[in-house]
Amino acid sequence: MSSPEGFAASREGFAAPPAGYAPEERRALLDAARTSIEHGLRHGRALRVDPAAYAEPLRELRATFVTLHLEGRLRGCVGSLEAHRPLVADVAESAWCAAFRDPRFEPLDEPELAGLEISISVLGPLEPLLVASEEELVARLRPGVDGLLLREGRLRGTLLPAVWRHVPDPRDFVREVKRKAGLRSDHWSEALEAIRYTVESIG
Hints:
single chain, 2 domains, Glycoprotein, Type 4 Pilin, 4-stranded antiparallel sheet, Dna Ligase, domain 1, alpha+beta
């Protein structure tokens, strides 16, 4: 599990694009996220959900990030780029990690729970971009649509599509991902991999 705005290690995999989830499915995912955080406050661990109790789309293997805001400020954001467990279970785990394991923040306190805003990003497939320069990468990105993962060796960083609201210029977006990966803003090499993805946002 990793934070897209302070990216540590992650694993990548391919999954079918996320479907358009029905309102009741979206509510179920948000409920699972909040319940997992409440469970973490009481028991110190994520909620173990039973995927069989949920609708079929929520049992499909998906990768997610869960983002928390409190009074308009980021309070945690953790997830994975690999689809390796049922969607509802991944949401429960990501939510707990965002609340209690994001290294940029202290663990969530119970008084914060009432004002907590939760949003879920369900990731589509990862799409490698075969580009030969930063200029070409900048031209290929779709502002407001694409998340971007850059990796070179053990260094990697990513930003979700929601970050375009704060970093609207594509060149700045690319360089911010480089910074998160621990690379210089002007860095480019043949070993640098660029991968984009889309998300369905819930909440």
